[in-house]
Design brief:
It is a single chain. With about 240 residues, the protein is mainly β. It folds into 2 domains: about 35 residues; about 190 residues, Jelly Rolls (Sandwich), CATH 2.60.120. It contains 2 helices and 14 strands. The chain is globular, with a radius of gyration of 21 Å. The structure holds calcium ion.
Length: about 240
């Protein structure tokens, strides 16, 4: 009997270990039914995500047939070109960024979790040795209420490499983020470089109307890589 209990105990420990391991191996996907079974984690319900193609899992289109500009379906993209009032030095003029909608197959395996936070695709906006300023927005018809806008972004702002390791831009002004929510915006905010940043803002709609939401980003210096990854955005009416 004692032996049977011992074996049962070992079996339980084994099941827990296997369960734990299999849980860690699974990518967490927001909105997936797997979330329900995560232990000891309480995720407050935000309700449905109102953004179209919020995880950038769909296709893309080109602006003006420019192949370097892949814009995710359901989204608009604008960018500055020419004079950069933040720095009059001629090498820091705004230049046209490049944009990509990247599936995991187009990223090295060790960058999948780094840059893809939901589903299988992420958006990358970048320019090597060029200052860039752009915004990615969508316009949708909203009913009255207070909305929460969530923007996740990874500033991949690199000034050089040391033995293959990225040297993140040392000047905090190298990258800025601004959330766009209807008639209002947050002002420019300074993100942490080399990691995922989550920004939130709320806004209120008083009458049913079209509202433009999204985010603007800018890197005022022509550093070696002015890169921005974005994925898993959200608009909720909690
Ligand atoms: Ca995604």
């Amino acid at each position: 009997m004692t032996k049977a209990k011992h074996s049962l105990g070992l079996l339980l420990v084994g099941l827990i270990l296997v369960g734990g391991l299999s849980y860690q191996a699974k990518p967490t996907q927001a909105g997936s039914s797997q979330t329900v079974f995560l232990p000891l984690i309480t995720v407050p319900s935000l309700g449905p995500n109102y953004l179209p193609n919020a995880s950038f899992e769909q296709g893309w289109y080109h602006i003006d047939n420019i192949p370097e500009l892949q814009i995710p379906e359901g989204w608009q993209f604008t960018y500055a070109a020419g004079e950069n009032p933040l720095d009059p030095d001629p090498w820091n003029v705004w230049v046209r960024p490049e944009t990509r909608v990247l599936p995991s197959a187009f990223l090295p395996p060790d960058e999948h979790n780094l840059f893809i936070w939901d589903g299988n695709q992420t958006v990358k906006v970048f320019k090597g040795s060029g200052a860039i300023s752009f915004d990615l927005t969508t316009t949708l018809f909203l009913q009255p209420g207070t909305y929460l806008l969530v923007i996740n972004v990874f500033p991949d702002l690199v000034v050089g490499y040391d033995n293959g390791q990225k040297i993140w831009a040392p000047d905090p002004l190298s990258g800025e983020v601004k959330l766009i929510a209807g008639n209002g915006t947050t002002g420019w905010m300074l993100p942490q470089f080399g990691q995922k940043n989550r920004f939130e803002t709320t806004f209120t709609v008083t009458t049913p109307q079209n509202v433009t939401v999204g985010a603007a980003m800018r890197g005022r210096w022509a550093i070696e890589n002015n890169g921005w990854f974005m994925d898993d955005w959200g608009l909720y009416k909690p």
